[in-house]
Amino acid sequence: MSRLRREQIVGLLMTLPALLLLSIFFLYPLFNSFWMSLHKWPLFGKPKWIGLDNYVWMINDERFWQCLKFTLVYTITVTPMLFIVAIGTALLCNVKTWGTTFFRSIYFLPVVMSFATASFVWLWLYSEWYGVIIFLLKAIGFGPEDGQLSVWTDGWTAMWAVNTMVTWKFAGIQMIILIAGLQSIRDDYYEASRLMGASRFQTIWNITLPLLRPSIALALILSIAGSIQAYEQFQIMTRGGPMNETKTLVMLTIGMGFDYFKLGPAAALGVIIMSILFVITLIQLRLFRKAY
Amino acid sequence: MKKYSGDWYWYYAINSVLVILILFPIYWTFISSVKKPDELITSEPTFYPHTWTWQYYDRIWNYDTDSIRTNTWGETSEDEENNKNKEKESSKIHKTTGSVTQTIGIDDAFTNSAIVSVGTIIFSIIVSTFAGYGLTFFRIPFKEVLFILLITPILVPAISLIIPIYKLLKGLGLTDSYLGLIFLHTTAMLPIGIFMMRNAFSSIPNSLREVALLEGTSELRIIGNVMLPLAIPGLLTVMVFAMYTSWNDYVLAFLFINSPEKTMLNIALAKIALGGSQFEMKWGSLTAGSMISFIPIIIFYTLLQRYFVRGITGSAVKE
């Protein structure tokens, strides 16, 4: 056996475990999600080919549109919140002064907490009767004087409550990405803008932000992709309530599959979520590339 | 890098406010978990615990034996035997009814999560090391295609594949098993793991391997004795991310684990949280449980912070 042939075989053997995992637990389900979405899957008996009926059924379902709308509203509101906090802290922490490392590691701290745990923690902070946030809100004059103040009774306030938690939890990741981007900007640009007498705001607007585009794109893609897949935060904190007003697409998918055993429509929903993410990512990459 | 020379006090003022805001929820969780019930359940919260208690930690950590133990206080050894029988009976009942209400303590859930996390860490290190090594040092046909294929899962979130994954696990008999979760977590780890290990190996000169091969060292020995010691930063990044992925997983553990004795930590917390209406929620237990879930990952973070950050920026900065 030639040395090259031997090397090829050994090399392939080394990648084999990874390839097996990938094929079984990723490629096969990926293929199967399309396959299942085109079939009727009864609990017992054989699946039947029904073409696009699952999609049609889903699109004609009011719940789908409600969940889609909420997921999009959530994405549109939480993304700027996250981004503003992240870019603020990134600009603030992009200096070499005593304490910067400490501040950065504190801002990153919530990221390492599990999302579920963070949701439980904030559930306690928001608790109607004993929650400290409710206490503070009342102290500054929100809500009825002696009655109960709850953020969960209204879909809109519930969403903002969750948004706040998500911002607290995830701004750190984006901050790290943006800092990495900031550090790749060469000092001469700042030097030049200083010599031209630009104000700090002008420098940020005309130099930092344009040069930071790739990092901004990445941060936004991460946050939008994450919000389209929102599940844990709403499952734990609002349970989709009140009146399913805060039910996300993924919650609908999982409910459809695991509570009602409608596997076909649920698989179709999965494909729809995947397509939405795919389209959004493409648009964003296009938008941010054009600028060069 | 620019410097805030004249207005450094603004820098520290803003940062201090932010630090307080960020740390407050964690601080509040901690003090809530050590307050006595009458101080905890009140509409006039105190901002530091006036009296301390570890009773919530004790209670959730020993949840399953709790009811039995409260009965045994001050009783004779004869009763103890009775209680042992009672304990046996009660565990039997739980098994036969298959009840999904919480029947295990946080200690067991903690162990379950630890088993799956350690399994994921070991498994992802092995898989990504071999794949990274093979993809760096070997002339494999379609090498680049393979590499790109192996990192595609990063584009398609597992959650949109949840239904076919469920069918697959069912078919393989891997629902309700640690192994199923370990496989899924490792697959989720593949892109970042292989990317990191390939990067780590790429910075090692090939000549090092050639020399070792000429000396007749086996490929496995080269990996173990020559390459891995040089790739430790990459290895630690993989480890940290495997731990993070596995320990923090909620959805997969929630959907694919049914038997109470296999409950994962995050799900056990959810069961505490839902153990009653909103009004009666066991807040002390929940905050104590949250702290217990947070502690291992915070230890990881303090020790290996650099690698958390490297994992995020490393995968962010494309070649």
From TrEMBL, chain A:
GO CC annotation: plasma membrane
Entry keyword Disulfide bond: no
Domain ABC transmembrane type-1, first and last residues per copy: 68-284
Biological process (GO), any one: transmembrane transport
Subcellular location: Cell membrane
Membrane topology: Multi-pass membrane protein
Keywords (A to Z) from UniProt: Cell membrane, Membrane, Transmembrane, Transmembrane helix, Transport
Secretion signal span: none
Pfam family, one: BPD_transp_1
Membrane-spanning segments: 12-31, 72-93, 105-125, 158-182, 203-228, 266-288
InterPro entries named in the record: ABC_transporter_permease, MetI-like, MetI-like_sf
Gene3D superfamilies: MetI-like (1.10.3720.10)
PANTHER family: ABC TRANSPORTER PERMEASE PROTEIN, INNER MEMBRANE ABC TRANSPORTER PERMEASE PROTEIN YCJO
Protein name: ABC transmembrane type-1 domain-containing protein
Record organism: marine metagenome
